[in-house]
């Protein structure tokens, strides 16, 4: 699906925009499922295993920061990852054998939906090599005023910046870090059905949603099968034990087969420890960890 020029651009810059990666029929079904989940959140009064609630959420005006693990909430989200243009892009970049790390549907409510402070995904879940990426599938049009993803091109080839505040892992870099070149930021906007791709080490963030429209982006975070997680990150997989881990690995395989020969590369690693007081989501990690906002 990707041209050689697109692959080269991703390698050099650490991000990519792919337009019309899914069909109009697939987009419509994803929108229907997503809005049904948002509608169901009216019955929820506190964050749970499905919803991460934003400030001001209530039955009359549902406000979410995120739908957690959407591929486990409805199988169609998983189908899109395994059998669509998304899958073709995945194979083009990471090859035939891939596994999912996590998924999330960041909903960013109108009128101030929460910012995501600048960070590198790699800081949250270091692996034995850095063949990891995130897809951001736009379920509604993303415009400059509704909190689009912003990236720092080529930062995936640079250092892993500190994500700590007050001695805790806060899930965000210091906005005053001299290595943070915010003036180089690129804003990624696009039509519904388009998809961003960014490398796990790429610096990125997004401002609050100041528009009167939802900003719905479905994120899949994915690894090449020979990239294995390092113990000490916050993932649930570290608590499974060997048998359940093996079973879970089968469930997390997107394309091809699991790899039992991890590839070790000389990549920068810093463990996300000690954890923030509440590390149940990036929003809670950044807030309870005392991250300094770059968007205030």
What would you give as the CATH superfamily? Answer: q2cbj1_9rhob like domain
Shape designation: globular
Amino- and carboxy-terminal Cα gap = 39 Å
Q: Regarding quaternary structure, how should these chains be classified?
A: single chain
Please bin the fraction of helical residues. 10-25%
Q: Kindly state the number of beta strands.
A: 14
**Class computed from helices, strands and strand pairing:** alpha+beta
Beta-strand content bin: 15-25%
Number of domains: 1
Q: Compute the gyration radius: what is it?
A: 18 Å
Q: Per CATH, what is the topology?
A: Jelly Rolls
Mean pLDDT over the residues: 95
CATH structural class: Mainly Beta
Low-confidence stretches are none
Biggest beta-sheet profile: 8 strands, antiparallel
CATH architecture assignment: Sandwich
What's the tally of helices? 7
Q: Please trace the helix and strand order, writing H or E for each element.
A: HEHEEHHHEEEEEEEEEEHEH
Short synopsis of the structure:
The chain contains seven helices and 14 strands.
